[in-house]
Write a structure and sequence with these properties.
4-stranded mixed β-sheet; 10 helices; flat; 389 residues; alpha+beta; single chain
């Protein structure tokens, strides 16, 4: 039986974190290609350091998305995030673009041809997870870690908190009793600040009201320990302070360590890549299993081989909370959704420019957008799953 009383922590990073700057740029490139050609193929990696951005990878799409256009996308993303500092400025940074044509050897194994359906873009395992700890069926520690940074970013951009810079990290530790989060034992917040005279206490005075705004009021008590800018000043932020790379924050992107991760990153990849699309599908199915009342917790694993259409395995673990046997749920999943790469893209309508918005504050636990963004957060499969068991 799983432990019922324990402490658990998860962290998040802001859109101005060096790695997240890179994720955003890579996903802006994905969106540009998909907007121009929904069947485009993109694998885009970004590196950022002091006043330098390097973009590399492979693509298949319209010639209109050239190096000049990619540079323009990168600068616009950096500007929107808010970097106008001496060591990293949207207008002054050097931007180098090294995108080239997709390998023909990859294409021949992945594309549909004759009687062969489109295959997975790579081998790999992907996980999805859902639980009843929050209304959006996400683990509470990562949900609230994201919420803190998202609120601070909104305050910074609106002018409510002009002292704050774009780079920040949060970490929330929750105490569980009988498997339910009941209190916040510690809050860690490190944020860049633009006023060099500010102390840690000054920064806490700015951020604490926003943190209290997003956390349940009864979770913060006199026993809650606060660590705000615990190392002192944090003036140099973003890629000027630490180099960034696409795809280094995969646990921040998913479940904050509360569930397994297959290892593949999401950002910079078009939806034919199962690292991204199958992870979204796994979250979609796991969330619908919980929404259907079939379990209170659900971990779903999918496995693929490059060039092969259907998943090699579908595995469900309900951690002892299932209302029906796990093999019954597995069989029901296969009857209500096609988990081939093409089937996933069609079910979730993924061939659209909806990815730049996923680059910060988590790919999961977000409200579905009217234009199809975060379609994997819908619970419209719940009735069909319930009917199949």
């Amino acid at each position: 039986m799983a432990r019922q009383s324990y402490l658990f922590s998860s962290e998040s990073v802001s859109e101005g974190h060096p790695d997240k700057v890179c994720d955003r740029i890579s996903d802006e490139v994905v969106d540009a290609y998909l907007a121009a050609m929904p069947e485009a193929r993109v694998a885009c990696e970004t590196l950022a350091t002091t006043n330098r951005v390097v973009i590399a990878g492979e693509t298949r799409g319209p010639a209109s998305i050239d190096a000049a256009r990619v540079e323009e996308l990168a600068r616009a993303a950096i500007k929107d995030i808010g970097y106008e500092q001496d060591g990293f400025h949207w207008q002054k940074a050097s931007v180098e673009v090294y995108l080239h044509a997709q390998s023909a050897h990859i294409a021949q194994g992945v594309d549909a041809a004759g009687n062969k359906d489109e295959g997975a873009g790579d081998q790999g395992i992907m996980f999805g997870f859902a639980c009843r700890e929050t209304p959006v069926l996400m683990p509470a520690p990562i949900f609230y870690s994201h919420a803190i940074l998202h609120r601070l970013a909104a305050a910074r951009k609106s002018g409510e908190a002009p002292q704050l810079g774009p780079d920040a990290k949060s970490q929330v530790t929750l105490r569980y009793e009988n498997g339910v989060p009941v209190a916040c034992t510690s809050i860690v917040l490190s944020t860049q600040h633009l006023d060099g005279s500010m102390t840690s206490e000054d920064v806490r005075a700015v951020v604490e009201p926003y943190i209290r705004e997003v956390l349940p009021a009864d979770w913060i008590t006199e026993k809650t320990v606060w660590y705000v800018n615990p190392t002192g000043k944090f003036e140099i932020g973003g890629p000027d302070g630490d180099a960034g790379l696409t795809g280094r924050k995969i646990i921040v992107d998913t479940y904050g360590g509360a569930a397994p991760h297959g290892g593949g990153a999401f950002s910079g990849k078009d939806p034919t890549k199962v690292d991204r699309s199958a992870a979204y599908a796994a979250r979609y199915v796991a969330k619908n299993v919980v929404a259907a009342g079939l379990a209170d917790r659900c971990t779903l694993q999918l496995a693929y081989a490059i060039g092969v259409s259907q998943p090699l395995s579908v595995y469900v673990d309900t951690a002892g909370t299932g209302k029906v046997p796990e093999d019954v749920i597995e069989a029901a999943i296969g009857r209500v959704i096609d988990l081939s790469p093409r089937g996933i893209r069609q079910a979730l309508q993924l061939n659209r420019p909806i990815y730049a918005r996923t680059a910060a504050y988590g790919h999961f636990g977000r409200e579905p957008d009217a234009d199809g963004g975060f379609s994997w957060e819908k619970t419209d499969l719940a009735d069909a799953l319930a009917a199949e068991v």
